Amino acid sequence: MKYIIRDAVKTDMSRVLELIQELASFEKEPNSVEVTLEELIEAGYGEKPLYHCFVAEVDGKVEGMALVYPRYSTWRGPVIHLEDLIVTQDMRGTGLGSALLKRVVQYGKEQGVKRIGWEVLDWNEPAIKFYESKGANVMRDWDVVQLDEEGMNRFLEST
């Protein structure tokens, strides 16, 4: 199988959005994707891009993606967050995920970051094993904390 890992361009974003929706379904959250194609394009290709995206192309079709964005660690300094690394179901086990992760790590080194971080669902053992096999530390003693839009509104109204 021949594949190319490259920077995503605006015209890839409709396929990237399809992959995001595929991931949401896999994660048992099929109705949770709220971002629109227009928002995705503006956020990545507007005046101040908020993320960088890579795609894995097989025979001219995007079959995987990885989306990262900058963060800052008070302990480490500049870091990047890997929001999603997605490979289509049919292409899992072909090396695309490894190639995408390698490109993300190369990008992190190019950016001079001190760490790359991401989350993985605790029931997604294949992904956990994949990341651990690449040398990642899956920190099972940390919990993800979030305030969604409704939660932010409730918080602000209550204070």
TrEMBL record:
Gene3D superfamilies, per database record: 3.40.630.30
InterPro entries in alphabetical order: Acyl_CoA_acyltransferase, Diverse_Substrate_AcTransf, GNAT_dom
Keywords: Acyltransferase, Transferase
Keyword Oxidoreductase recorded: no
Pfam family, one: Acetyltransf_1
Superkingdom of this protein's organism: Bacteria
N-acetyltransferase domain location: 3-157
PANTHER family linked: DIAMINE N-ACETYLTRANSFERASE, GH14572P-RELATED
Record protein name field: GNAT family N-acetyltransferase
Organism of provenance: Croceitalea rosinachiae
